[in-house]
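STRUCTURE:
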């Protein structure tokens, strides 16, 4: 077929709609389902799917797009390099902090669109490793450890503030509690919890290097439950510390060891709707679930690259619908799970 004939055919197919395609299902139901614990026990965690590249949004194509691909070839598909932290806006957008790509990936599961956010058109992040969505102000906070800065973006991705100066050395985890009017930032290099106002003003620092309750050894991540209690992965003390809303240390959860309930490298922490604590262990390649008193309830995951397996996982986020998003860093993907509450739950699409 000559070049001119090929172009003519492509144009005809485009007009007829033959080059287009409908949007696909982002998370098709796995067959067989992947459930934890396995049957016949009652399911608490189920594997939903994964996002690896922008193509996983399965946006479909208009006839014009299909025609353009046929004529000029497809554009390169953008993917993740080292996803370190995840969060959603409580609606349809997923944000992923990618330390090596030096961007924040934005996947919109409703519009099926993908973009990246950066501090400016010609300015990139240095090492984005922490994320938090402030639902009250509709803004995204991005902790950049190498830049010693927390960047603040509005709902459209416009940079509105930079919190740095003498506030912290290497900010890592970040969490927002609008009800109590503060932002908690974990300063890994300073071995401290940093409390800021919602405007980014320094209120206080808590902690220093050590192994006692209220002290830290390279802490990394933070989560806040509905009562305002704060959970911090005290990584090289091999534990999670629980603090009261007024920053008093309450208890230690876990310790160094290789048995269930112990840690080797606790990283991401998150809380579900029933107040359970989820802890990602980067060395064990697993997620352990505790009650608020520190009692181990169950765990899921193992080393590997298949569904529900991990390779140096880092961040975790649980959205208002109890969907669990995990940054599976060295597998270059985000894995998605559902938590099934004690009461019957509606199956999500």
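SEQUENCE:
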């Amino acid at each position: 077929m000559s070049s001119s004939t090929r172009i003519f055919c492509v144009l005809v197919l485009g007009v007829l709609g033959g080059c287009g395609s409908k949007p696909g299902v982002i998370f098709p139901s796995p067959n067989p389902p992947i459930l934890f614990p396995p049957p016949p026990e009652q399911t608490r965690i189920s594997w939903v799917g994964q996002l690896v590249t922008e193509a996983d949004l399965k946006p479909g194509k208009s006839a014009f797009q299909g025609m353009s691909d046929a004529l000029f070839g497809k554009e390169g598909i953008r993917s993740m390099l080292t996803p370190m932290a995840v969060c959603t806006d409580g609606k349809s957008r997923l944000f992923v902090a990618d330390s090596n790509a030096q961007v924040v990936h934005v996947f919109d599961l409703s519009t099926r669109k993908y973009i990246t956010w950066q501090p400016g058109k010609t300015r990139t992040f240095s090492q984005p490793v922490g994320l938090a969505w402030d639902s009250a102000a509709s803004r995204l906070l991005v902790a950049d450890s190498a830049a010693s800065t927390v960047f603040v973006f509005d709902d459209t991705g416009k940079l509105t503030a930079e919190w740095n100066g003498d506030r912290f050395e290497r900010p890592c985890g970040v969490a927002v509690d609008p009800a109590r009017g503060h932002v908690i930032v974990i300063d890994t290099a300073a071995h401290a919890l940093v409390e800021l106002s919602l405007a980014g003003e320094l209120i206080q620092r808590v902690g220093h290097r050590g192994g006692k309750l209220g002290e830290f050894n390279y802490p990394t991540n933070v989560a806040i439950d509905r009562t305002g209690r704060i959970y911090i992965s005290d990584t090289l003390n091999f534990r999670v510390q629980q603090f009261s809303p007024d920053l008093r240390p309450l208890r230690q959860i876990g310790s160094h060891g290789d048995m269930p309930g112990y840690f080797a490298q606790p990283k991401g922490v998150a809380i579900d709707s029933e107040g359970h604590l989820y802890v990602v262990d980067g060395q064990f390649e697993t997620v352990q679930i505790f009650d608020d008193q520190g009692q181990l309830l169950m765990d899921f995951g193992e080393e590997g690259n298949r569904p529900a397996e991990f390779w140096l996982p880092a961040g975790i986020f649980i959205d208002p619908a109890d969907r669990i998003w995990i940054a599976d860093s060295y597998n270059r993907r985000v894995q998605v799970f559902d938590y099934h509450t004690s009461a019957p739950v509606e199956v999500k699409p």
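REMARK: The longest strand covers residues 45-51.
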